[in-house]
């Protein structure tokens, strides 16, 4: 069985967000890094990528040549920028809306890892991504017109918030399905400025959910945080769909009426960096295929779980075939729609 364009609900993904790379630094000791602490460690031979690139990559490689992916952003006129641009071109993205900025560096970061595989990121704030503004996004209007009612818009972090809001406004105007994620530091702003009212699917992690729920996610049971997040978001945007990842505690989705939880799949974690982005990408793929959110959640869980078995934030081996094999090896029961899609 081979799926064709007639089988899918949407025909294009147009997304903006961070495009860049970084380095991995493995810390000695699992305790959380303190504000004034000096900690030893070492750099690792691992590749780190930014949010838009990670999410878009998985959407493209899982759906294949039938599906068009248009990333929107900027990289620096430097060696790293050209390297990433070439990698994205080889993946098959439409790169017509990714430009080189002559006066700003490509977005770069240091991803720090604890020995247990968890970690975080430190990212520069003066990169080319900072120059993705409202006017830059507005040039996409013809693409939105072309795919009116037939596309997914992705507003990912690491470009200015106003640029992402402009993308969501265009998506609203032309009937796109609107997906967004925001950093922990941005959550209070988007809760107060109305941005969540023009989002169909919000993809966040448990820490970001804690801001919404006004709870400390480090000490509160995850399900309590999820339930409180749903309660508040139903006030902000009653029909909103929600995806929340919580590492070893699994992940949750909310379809506007019901909640679904999928336990974490037991794997040997090499690096958890990028797992949340892989999870959101899997859900987006499922929605593009016309699946219900809970079925799309299955794909998200598979993608996230397989992604952490790679040292890189983009697992180079993820595709439909590898996801199917992974599910089989782990004896994961999949809905017939997801199983047939992965087997196609």
Question: How would you describe what is shown here?
Answer:
The protein is 37% helix and 22% strand. It has a 9-stranded mixed sheet, sandwiched between helices. The protein has helices at 51-63, 79-91, 134-138, 141-146, 161-173, 187-193, 206-213, 222-236, 275-288, 293-307, 320-329, 336-343; strands spanning 12-16, 20-27, 41-49, 68-76, 98-101, 107-113, 119-123, 151-155, 177-180, 201-205, 241-245, 251-254, 259-262. It has one domain: UDP-N-acetylmuramoyl-L-alanine:D-glutamate ligase. Strand 11 and strand 12 form a beta hairpin. The chain has 344 residues and is an alpha/beta fold. It contains 12 helices and 13 strands.
Topology:
Blueprint: E1 12-16, E2 20-27, E3 41-49, H1 51-63, E4 68-76, H2 79-91, E5 98-101, E6 107-113, E7 119-123, H3 134-138, H4 141-146, E8 151-155, H5 161-173, E9 177-180, H6 187-193, E10 201-205, H7 206-213, H8 222-236, E11 241-245, E12 251-254, E13 259-262, H9 275-288, H10 293-307, H11 320-329, H12 336-343
Parallel strand pairs: 1-4, 1-8, 2-6, 4-5, 8-9, 9-10, 10-11
Antiparallel strand pairs: 2-3, 6-7, 11-12, 12-13
Helix pairs in contact: 1-9, 7-8, 9-10, 11-12
Roughly what percent helix?
A: 25-40%
The CATH architecture can be given as 3-Layer(aba) Sandwich
Oligomer: single chain
The strands making up the biggest β-sheet line up spatially as 5-4-1-8-9-10-11-12-13
